[in-house]
From TrEMBL:
InterPro entries: DUF7053 (IPR055481). Residues 3-178 form the DUF7053 domain. Pfam families: DUF7053. The lineage of its organism: Eukaryota, Fungi, Dikarya, Ascomycota, Pezizomycotina. This is DUF7053 domain-containing protein.
Amino acid sequence: MSAKHHLHVAASIPPHLTPGEVIAALQDHSTTLSLQALTTGHEKLPNTAPEILKDTYWFPTDLNPVHTYSVTECVTILPGVGQMGRKNITFPSCYQNIPSGIKSRADVSGVTVRAEYRVIKGGMESEVAGEGQGIGDAEWVLVEDAEINCSWWLMPFIKGKMELAHRDICRKVIEKVEMQRRQVDLAQSVGRSLQVDGASATPAEAVAPEQQVAELAAPGSQKIFYA
């Protein structure tokens, strides 16, 4: 007999960030893949399994393609014994871009996790209408709704691991977008300063090299690992 567990998380989007910036960060799938607490690396795969594409959870896949990644997680099997109690597991994780964010699905050893991340408007009195969680005074909100399906006897263990992996993702996505915005603002500020300095400097003759050759990496899959 199977069991289900639902997790809802919401994070307010600061007024100096736009909904489009947050959606763009979500649709760079490396964002949520790298921000999950248990994940240690991922690699994009060339194809998605046909049985996954048949899931009615997805938006029409001919209009919204599904992309699949091979994901590696480090899971603690026996607490208190250090590295000996940890195990690396690898499984497929699928992503689909939708207008308000992304849908994802991960399958491993009889466990299926579906998670949808959406940027939505804040509701009346700063509540997210129908979401069941107040998030303060916010015009826009990032929400995650996750569902886990597995055997009932596995649920107590899987539930805790899933909540650990997903609890802070929305907050971390917002923090990452804020950091990227600060980096862009800093680069623009430095660029303007250099333009002002350059305008007041004595013109110099620039000599172009005879030939420049750039070597590009061959196309193919890319493995990404992170601490």
